[in-house]
Amino acid sequence: MALADEWDIWFPDAYEIGSESVRSFARATRSWHVPYAASRVIPADTAVPATLLGAPLLQAASALVGKALPGCNLSAILHAGQSYTYLRPLHIGEVLSVGARLSSHIVKADTDLITVASTVYVGSEPVLGAETLIVHSQRETGIDLEAADRLADELMMTGTGPSSSDAYAANVAGSI
Asked: 162 by DSSP, 3-state: which?
């Protein structure tokens, strides 16, 4: 069985850890173990924070949420938590693939509680495990959902999510 077949969704070669992306992330998060203020190239043996992979892991989680909740409004989704388990240190220059599966979907009080389990690979070697908790409220709030959806689209960072929440959810649900 191929590695991709073990997952609900598989993103081959989803992310390459670059020196400048590590430096930028470390600067933004004030990571004490990355020499982000140095004007030289960051050493290849610099520890890469697992949270640097938040964007590709959230992209995998949003793809699964789009499949589990067709037509969901992304403005009603809350990223409630994420945990990481290092299987080995990540290194600058590595090209990472991401496998993700929906490990739990519970509905309580008109609220979906969705847990997505992910593993990050270098080649066929697992290097990082992650679990993401997503909360989606189905309750009527009186909020203009179209306006909230437009706002959600405006808040998404370039390269980390959809440019159109509805189109993205429909496209992902249809392609998986």
From this structure: coil
- pLDDT attached to residue 167: 53
DSSP annotation of 88: S
Partners of residue 125 on adjacent β-strands: 122
Strands (E), 94-171: 95-108, 111-122, 125-137
Contact 135, 92 (CB under 8 A): no
Residue 85 contacts residue 124 (beta carbons within 8 Å): no
Of residues 59 and 144, which shows the higher confidence score? 59
Q: In 10 A of CB 119, how many CB atoms?
A: 20
Torsion sign over Cα 39, 41, 42, 45: negative
pLDDT confidence bin for 4, thresholds 50/70/90: confident
pTM: 0.75
Cβ of 101: how many Cβ atoms within 10 Å?
Answer: 16
